[in-house]
Every structure is written in C-alpha cells, then in structure tokens.
Design a protein that fits this description.
Layout lengths: L12 H9 L12 H5 L1 H5 L6 E4 L7 H7 L3 E6 L2 H10 L4 E5 L7 E5 L4 E5 L7 H4 L2 E6 L11 H11 E9 L18 H8 L1
Parallel strand pairs: 1-2, 1-6, 2-5, 6-7
Antiparallel strand pairs: 3-4, 4-5
C-alpha cells in the first residue's frame, strides 16, 4: 500500500500529552503557516464574523489572528498545558468551565468570548456541543490522527461544518516506508475518499 508501514501505527493520548510535557512540540509553529496566509481568502471568502474550527489546535497562533479579525474561534486539544500556554503566550485573560456533556472535559474561553478551546478528545465533540462551523483550519490534525481513525475523524469533521463552509487542509508528502510518523502520510486519493 502507498501508506507503507504506517497503516497499523497508533499514537496514544498519553504519548501526545508527554510530547507537550517534555516540550517535544516541533509541530508547533510560532508564525502563521505560509499556506494559511496564501489561502486565507478561500477560508474567509471576504466575510468576517465567521465560526472557525481548529481540530487538534495545540496553541496555534492563527487562532488569535482570526479572532482579532472579528471571527469566533473554537478549538479542541487533548493537552490542557497546550491550551493554557495559548492563553498565556498571547496574554489573554480566560475562564474555564466543565463541559457538562463530556466527563472530565473543560472549555477555556477568552473573556472577550471569541475564543473557546475545548480540552478533551476530539471524538467526544459533536455539533450538539460545539455547533457548526463556516470554516476549518486543519494544519496538523488529519496528519496526526492515527491512520485507523481517519474515517471516524473525517465523518466527525463533515458533521461539524455548514453546507457552504471552507476546509483548509495541510498534508505532508514523503515516503511512508522511511518514516513512522506522525505526521502521517495521507495521499491525495485518501483525502478525496474521506472528504469527497
């Protein structure tokens, strides 16, 4: 198969949490991603006041940037440390509350109200909890999801977007037989079969 030996690879939530605890976060960008800047017009379509979703958000700097432009940003991240660092890195005051529908989950919301970050497994979310979105910035989520969970992930993402939404997706291309991932190799053919 063109995904090589990665097909069976599983990275646990504990491993992701450990990456954050150890500061092993080479996947985090301090600057906006160049493809984000290049395709921002595709995401926003000249509009503001949109609801934008950041799956597996970490402490992505684009969240603050889009919120400052007048959009509402919702992210989900398993690492509470990452969520707290996002608010602290940007000197943003926030409050935290439990999410009644999800055992053990918390939502961290900026006091301005336009950034809400859910600390839980992405698979615990649904549109009944977070609503629907006008856009998605998937810079490192699909490539971080375990290959065996891709269909589940794509189905969830499709359920979270409005009909006229824009979905910006960044993948990486390399020989999957030479690297175990993450980031995992997701061929374009698989993106098409997952999202249509």
């Amino acid at each position: 198969s063109d995904v090589g030996s990665q097909k069976e690879r599983v990275v646990t939530e504990e491993e992701w949490l450990q990456k954050w605890e150890m500061g092993n976060i080479g996947f985090h960008n301090e600057e906006e991603h160049p493809l984000f800047q290049k395709y921002l017009d595709v995401l926003l379509k000249g509009r503001s006041g949109l609801r934008i979703f950041f799956p597996l958000c970490g402490k992505a700097v684009e969240m603050k940037w889009l919120a400052d432009m007048g959009n509402s940003v919702v992210g989900v991240e398993i690492s509470e440390q990452a969520v707290r660092e996002f608010f602290s890195d940007h000197s943003l005051p926030y409050c935290e509350e439990p999410v009644p529908e999800i055992s053990g989950a918390k939502v961290f919301q900026s006091t301005s109200g336009n950034i809400s970050l859910y600390c839980c497994s992405i698979y615990d979310l649904s549109s009944s909890i977070v609503g629907k979105f006008d856009g998605v910035w998937d810079r490192g989520a699909l490539v971080a999801v375990n290959p065996c969970d891709r269909q589940r992930y794509a189905s969830l993402m499709i359920s979270l977007v409005e009909k006229n939404s824009s979905y910006l997706l960044v993948t990486v291309s390399y020989d999957p037989n030479k690297q175990k991932g993450p980031p995992f190799y997701v061929p374009e053919s698989e993106v098409k079969s997952l999202f249509g």
